[in-house]
Amino acid sequence: MENIESNWREKWKDKEITTEEAIKMIIPGNRVFIGTGCSKPQALITELIKQAVRLIDTEILHFLDIGLEKYFDKNAEDLFRHNTLFIGANLREEINKGKADYTPIYASEIPSLILSGRKHIDVALIQVTPPDPYGFCSFGINVDITKPISQSAYLTIAEINPQMPRTLGDSFIHMKEINYFVYNDTPLIEYHFDEPDEIAERIGQNVANLIQNKSTIHVGFGDLPNEVLKHLGEKKDLGMHSHYITNNIIPLIEKGVLTCRKKNIFPGKIITSFALGTKKLYDFINTNPFIEFYPSDQVCDPRFIGKNKNLVSINSARQIDLTGQVNASTEGYKFYSGLGETIDFMRGAAFSKGGKPIIILPSTTRDGKKSRIVPHLDEGAGVMLSRGDVHYIITEWGVAHLHGKTIRDRALELICIAHPKFRPQLLEEAKRLNYIYSDQMLCCDEDGEICIYPKQYETYFKSKQNEKIIIRPVKTTDEPLLRELYYSLDEKDRYLRFFEIKKEFTHSKTQSEVNIDYNDVFSIGAFIGDLSNQKMIGNATYYYNPRNNMAEFSFIVSSEWRGHGIGSYLLNHLIIIAKEKGIRGFYGTIHIQNKSTIHLFQRLGTKITPPEPGENELFYELFFERE
Predict the structure, then answer these.
(1) What pLDDT, on a 0 to 100 scale, did the predictor assign at position 626?
(2) What is the pLDDT of residue 1?
(3) What single string gives the DSSP state of each residue in 517-583?
(4) CB of 241 within 8 A of CB of 154?
(5) The predicted structure's pLDDT at residue 604
(6) CB atoms < 10 A from the CB of 3, how many?
(7) Are 505 and 486 in contact (CB under 8 A)?
(8) Neighbouring residues of 114: CB distance < 8 A, sequence distance ≥ 6
(9) Rounded to whole angstroms, how far apart are CA atoms 541 and 524?
(10) Are 427 and 435 a contacting pair, CB within 8 Å?
(11) Which residue, 223, 221, 260, is CA-closest to 240?
(12) DSSP structural state of residue 241
């Protein structure tokens, strides 16, 4: 190794300089780019700070600055003028104090901003691998905007580090394109995500439930999106097309989950721009042909992203209002992060056939004192995603699908995934703003407390035609689906179900059937389709009678789905729920012409009382256990 190292350093000795000499090439008034994230050239930055006194009016351009360097000194805070394209922790305070600048721009557009000359770069300070025998250095863990900037800067100075992994793809620069280099054999900066809490884990599971096998995944910046990867271990043949990658991809690859075999674009390859993680990740990607790095203008181009089928984009947010406007980068008037690739990938996923653009956020702030789902965004908050851009919103309390929905539907969907303690307040605000019906109810118990959706009773079964039918408790937001089911019934079905031919199923008449307490009244539905296009094809409900510890039971199945076993499954599942709640049995009335229901109960050994002469109804009792 020593000979190889000596050979290339000897070959390119005319370009090697000291860090002091390198930074002296920067003159006041220059615009200097510093390599991104964990790929920052550490020796060059240390020297840059040392020479700060003479570099008055020098603009320093960053994208996602990570590290412990202290660029600002209270006695000399105006020596550099920092301009960041995405706000990291290092510069957040200074930006909000007006001591540094922030340029909002999509990640996909940064390279063209530089290459067009609209924001030229005088000096690029980068970090790369040693050159191979052909003179090519790899940008390693960060290609993103670093490659196009390095190749367009007036002066490119590289910190060559043998500990930088050699990555593949469009990730190389030739020594001829590097004006000068310094040598620094040092460990790379490592990035550690926060450990997940219970809320993050619940959000991760909710997202995982939406992701189908063979999907291609994008993970947005932040702890929450990264956490989702830990919940994908049971999936099959996932792919990845993501602006960045983390340590969490390694277990998925080793387990055979993340294979990229089913990708239609770059099959068999993870496509990315940069890596954020630890040495374990850096060692894993070193000369790994499974992972290819490309500049941000390619990886984050929505048109290119959209060519991937079933592209799932997972992005975090800080706040969303009841109409669907998303704030992901500010806290009121204060800037927190940036545009990054969020909009690029959300729109790319929307272009994707079978794609899912997803926004995730905890339902409350960390202290639990404020809801992140709000009637209106905070004053000064930036709208990153418009109402037209949002599709799926996920909190620890569930999933809301907003795309193509009315303001009324959106408000109700979001209220139902807000933290329960804030739902009454959000409901009243939505009424005040005329977003929802003035008489809109929520699922509450007899004391007026919000009822928690019993997710544990969600299940599914395969019909005789191998169709997957989702069986779950009904929700407030199922009201339109229940009405559609009722309206689909012909006059005979309506009579057999309601003992009258009902003509209308208005909001005022049906909302009580979905706003239940999941205790005295429990209703489950059978659903087909995914969340964006779901249809209720069956419904079963019991009404508890405490006088005899029995429950009255009723159900209906859409005519085109009868004979598939749905009615039997609904009844058996509701029996399981009723047993858990200590109910002795079901009772009710069946019209004598309702042959299918009669046969269903007869198969269960139900006691059925024949009608009196001249009557049209049968009375049945179904006991779960022998007395």
Answers:
(1) 43
(2) 37
(3) -SSSEEEEEEEES-GGG-EEEEEEEEEEETTTTEEEEEEEE-GGGTTSSHHHHHHHHHHHHHHHTT-
(4) no
(5) 76
(6) 6
(7) yes
(8) 120, 121, 145, 148, 149, 152
(9) 6
(10) no
(11) 260
(12) B
Question: Which three-class secondary structure state does DSSP give residue 318?
Answer: coil
Q: What is the rounded CA–CA span in Å between residue 486 and residue 482?
A: 6
Burial class of 504 by CB neighbour count within 10 A (0 to 12, 13 to 18, 19+): exposed
**Cα gap 370→79, rounded to integer Å:** 39
Q: Which residue has the tokens 């009121």?
A: 332
Q: CA nearest 273: which of 165, 163, 146, 114?
A: 146
Q: Which CATH architecture has domain 2-183?
A: 3-Layer(aba) Sandwich (3.40)
Show me where the domains of the chain are located. Answer: 2-183, 198-432, 455-623
Cβ-proximal residues to 357 (8 Å cutoff; 6+ apart), any chain? 313, 315, 345, 346, 347, 349, 350, 389, 390, 391, 392
Structure tokens at 543: 């009404």
Residue identified by tokens 């926004």 is 359
Answer yes or no: same fold for 2-183 and 198-432.
yes
CA distances from 202 to 320, 422, 570 (A): 19, 19, 27
* Cα–Cα dist 588/499, whole Å: 12
Angstrom distance (rounded) from CA 57 to CA 27:
9
Q: What are 477's two structure tokens? A: 């937001």
pLDDT at 94: 87
CATH homologous superfamily of 455-623: Gcn5-related N-acetyltransferase (GNAT) (3.40.630.30)
258 secondary structure, DSSP code: B
Q: Mean pLDDT per segment of 10 residues, for the chain of length 627 residues?
A: 66 96 95 93 94 89 76 59 87 88 95 92 97 97 96 96 98 97 96 92 96 97 95 97 97 98 97 97 98 97 97 97 96 92 97 97 95 96 95 97 96 97 96 96 86 94 86 96 94 85 90 94 95 93 94 91 90 94 90 81 79 76 66
Element (H, E) at 62: strand 58-62
Is 208 strand, coil or helix?
Answer: helix
Query: Residue 259's pLDDT is what?
Result: 98
User: Which DSSP symbol is given to 615?
Assistant: -
Whole-angstrom distance, CA of residue 192 vs CA of residue 354: 33
Q: What pTM was estimated for this model as a whole?
A: 0.92
Structure tokens at 81: 């003028």
Of 82, 57, 59, which is closest to residue 69 (Cα–Cα)? 82
Topology of domain 198-432, CATH: Glutaconate Coenzyme A-transferase (3.40.1080)
d(CA 465, CA 456): 26
Sign of CA dihedral 35, 41, 45, 47: negative
CA-to-CA separations, 4 to 14, 249, 602, in angstroms, rounded: 17, 33, 85
Asked if 69 contacts 90 with a C-beta cutoff of 8 angstroms, the reply is yes
Can you tell me which residue has the tokens 């009608």? 611
Residues 220/341, Cβ–Cβ less than 8 Å: yes
Residues 6+ apart with CB under 8 A from 17: 180, 181, 182
Long-range CB contact pairs, 488-494, < 8 A, 24+: 488/558, 488/559, 489/556, 489/558, 489/559, 490/559, 493/556, 493/559
**How many Å apart are CA 285 and CA 283, to the nearest integer?**
6
Give the total residue count for the chain: 627
